[in-house]
Amino acid sequence: MRNVLVTGGSRGIGLGIVRRLTAVGFRAIAVARKESDQLTAAMEEAEAKNAGSLRFVPFDLADIEGIADLVKSVRKEFGPIYGLVNNAGTSAEGSLALMATSQMERLIRLNTLSPIVMTKNVLRSMMADGGGRIVNIASIVASTGYSGLAVYSATKASLIGFTRSLAREVGKMNVTVNAVAPGFVDTEMTQGLKDEQREQIVRRSALRRLVEVEDVASAVEFLLSDGAKNITGTVLTVDAGNTA
């Protein structure tokens, strides 16, 4: 059973990804601060179908200094790490002129620095094991922009630059590095949008709908699959045609 580490795996897109991966035969290791009720239910469901296919490791991903030990302990307990999905992130909406510097630092720490340091440590494991797959969850706002999300957009754009350069760096080691850029997904993160904002996004999309968690999870599954062995350094956009 191939191990895939999924950060932010207790809810939203991360939970959808771990559900999908366990359903197709991977062992998903969900990393998050707390085990949510939804994750507990998913673990019980996965255990009944395929024992040991969904595991939870509690960790605060803002603890940059602790990431190396986290990766060592995961590898020791579960074996080689085949895939890493850098999904954990936080969002903060508001005018840049009014945003506290401490809030900016928190966003950059969790959305940019944490996945880069996580990748560094998992990458060492992958190099020792002969290869692997890295998938970074970005966002369409990295390229389109969105009023009130300047710092969040900057963190997601940095992940795309990171993806492209790292793909060139580690390709010779049989490691692929790709990003998935979701549009506005129907999750807790978009519940804060006003009805007219949601309607505007739907109207702007070629398919006239919001993206669902399962759509993003399927894209991640594909990039981890054998069918994607020659895809690296790319960004797979899943946005219902919002940017078409």
Written overview of the protein:
This protein has helices at residues 12-23, 37-49, 67-78, 101-129, 141-144, 150-170, 195-204, 213-224; strands at residues 3-7, 27-32, 54-58, 81-86, 132-137, 175-182, 235-238. By secondary structure, it is α/β, with parallel strands linked by helices. It has a 7-stranded parallel β-sheet, sandwiched between helices. The mean pLDDT is 93.
Largest sheet: spatial strand order: 3-2-1-4-5-6-7
Largest sheet: 7 strands, parallel
Q: Can you tell me the overall shape?
A: globular
Helical content band: 40-55%
- Report the average pLDDT across residues: 93
How far apart are the first and last residues' alpha carbons, in Å?
38 Å
- Briefly note the structural class of the backbone: alpha/beta
What's the tally of helices?
Answer: 8
Strand content: 15-25%
Total strands: 7
Query: What are the secondary-structure elements, in order, as H or E?
Result: EHEHEHEHEHHEHHE
Q: Give the C-alpha Rg.
A: 17 Å
- Provide the low-confidence segments as ranges: none
